[in-house]
Amino acid sequence: MTEETNSPKQGNSPPNAIDIIADTMLEFREEMEFFNNAGTKIAARTRLIIRVGFTALAISSVVLIYMIYLMANNMSAMTTHMVDMYNNFGSMSQDMQAITKTVDLMENNVSGVPLIAESMNMIDNNVITMNESVSGMNQSIAAIDNDMVGINVNMQEMTGRLSNMKHSVNSMSYDVHDMSQPMTSGPWSDFWPK
Fold first, then answer.
1. Average pLDDT by consecutive 10-residue portion of the chain (194 residues)?
2. Which of 15, 108, 125, 132 could form a disulfide linkage to 8, CB 3.0–4.6 angstroms apart?
């Protein structure tokens, strides 16, 4: 710049007007640079958010497409199962018809049930008679058991008496031996056979 343009006395402006304008322009430029930097940072963050959003959207789309693919496969399997179910219902209908025929035959066969009921009543009467006979047998067996207990007691008494007889015979044998001592040890010892 020349000295003329820097001169404070130029034009009708006050002497400090150029400095004030220059300072104002510098402040305006600094503020614009600050806003520019802040806008750049905001734009970078916004770009990052948009990229993350689009990446998440792309991943969600891939997952959604995969799930649709699985659902389509499952739908084909479901259709196959539905066809199988339809076939099974058809065979079940045939089975129900066969069951109905069997029930009709059973109704015809049930006509012989009264004879069976009479036979069952006779069997019941026979079983009652058998129960009475078995009860009498049980009473006889109980009496036999009582007799066996009495026989056991008598056998024990006989065993005791035989034991007493054995002791008595042993005592008699000792007595006979003692009684024969004078004959075998005295002057007559040679006379008696040994």
1. 45 67 88 90 92 92 91 84 84 85 76 75 86 86 85 84 79 70 60 55
2. 15
